[in-house]
Design goal:
Blueprint: H1 2-27, H2 33-38, H3 45-55, H4 61-73, H5 87-122, H6 127-141, H7 144-158, H8 174-199, H9 203-210, H10 215-252, H11 258-267, H12 271-299
Helix pairs in contact: 1-12, 5-6, 5-8, 5-10, 5-12, 6-8, 7-8, 8-10, 9-10, 10-11, 10-12, 11-12
Length: about 300
């Protein structure tokens, strides 16, 4: 319990740091925020003053930051300039689609990457090992947006198996999840393979084999569990990166989600929405890593004592 509270308290300065970085970054954008948002529209002095007051830009910077923190803690991230809706409402309406895509990509990366790495380790220096390693290298080299376009051309335009764009059903989730998850599946496969090869050389594995334990039991019961700790760490980090990487994939496949919302806000200079979505993704990344940290105690009881 003490470890749990300690880890929870350690996330507070991280969240404060993310909030500060988001706040400062938005104010380092060249040009006046109001001018950026209004563009070439004819805006009267009264309308400009009203917008400045709405954004709180007529107060000292430190007061703006404290007000931003206070409202963020209470779930108020401001109001969208374009949609005239609360930013929190916009984020909550789009977050499920992004989480669905990230979860599907992570499931694909974990299952396929884990199995591929396991097969490669057990069959070291054999043809299956070489196939897995070459495939992993290709997966690391292919950009997700290029792979997405290639998948659309092949499976949507030429074969007509699945829709090219949109969201809502499983058939519209397969291609974007694959495009987003390939690079992380390749990373997982390489990590599982290297971890398994190292674990299989340890003394307790030799002892288990000497006692007559079957090879599948040695691999799955003894070796795989010891390999899972670094793998879980990477998977946790990858899930946070998937939320950020979904921006590109959602744009390619014209899916609803935080990615499209953020890109649209940037293009339309919707200051509060950009600030809110970046803060939300950063906070989600911290929370996911906190949950992964708690899994250590389940996988390795020795961690509970630290």
């Amino acid at each position: 319990m003490r470890r749990l509270w300690s880890r929870m308290l350690s996330t507070v300065p991280v969240l404060l740091g993310i909030s500060a970085l988001v706040f400062i970054a938005m104010r380092l954008i060249p040009g006046d925020p109001v001018t950026l948002m209004t563009g070439e529209l004819a805006v009267s002095a009264q309308q400009r003053a009203q917008l400045v007051h709405q954004l709180g830009l007529d107060r000292p910077v430190w007061m703006q930051f404290l007000d931003f923190l206070w409202r963020a803690v209470h779930g108020d991230l401001g109001e969208s300039i374009r949609y005239k809706l609360p930013v929190t409402q916009l984020i909550l309406s789009q977050a499920p689609a992004t989480l669905e895509l990230a979860a599907a990509a992570m499931l694909f990366a974990s299952v396929i990457g884990g199995l591929a790495g396991l097969v490669a380790a057990v069959n070291r220096k054999r043809i299956s090992d070489h196939i897995v390693m070459v495939s992993a290298m290709l997966g690391l080299c292919i950009p997700s947006f290029w792979l997405g376009l290639l998948l659309i051309f092949l499976f949507s335009l030429r074969l007509g198996w699945v829709p090219a764009t949109g969201s809502g059903g499983l058939n519209q989730l397969i291609l974007p999840a694959f495009a987003l998850g390939v690079i992380y599946a390749a990373t997982t496969a390489r990590l599982v393979r290297s971890g398994m090869l190292e674990t299989l050389q340890q003394d307790h594995i030799r002892t288990a084999r000497a006692k007559g334990v079957s090879e599948p039991a040695v691999v799955l019961r003894h070796a795989l569990k010891n390999t899972l700790i670094p793998v879980v760490t990477v998977i946790g980090l990858q899930f946070g990166q998937l939320l950020a990487g979904a921006v590109v994939v959602e744009t390619v496949f014209a899916r609803q989600g935080l990615g499209v919302l953020t890109v649209d806000a940037v293009l339309n200079k919707d200051y509060p929405v950009v600030q809110g979505t970046v803060l939300f993704i950063g906070a989600a990344f911290v929370c996911i890593n906190f949950l992964v940290d708690q899994l250590y105690a389940v996988l390795d009881p020795r961690v509970r004592e630290t």
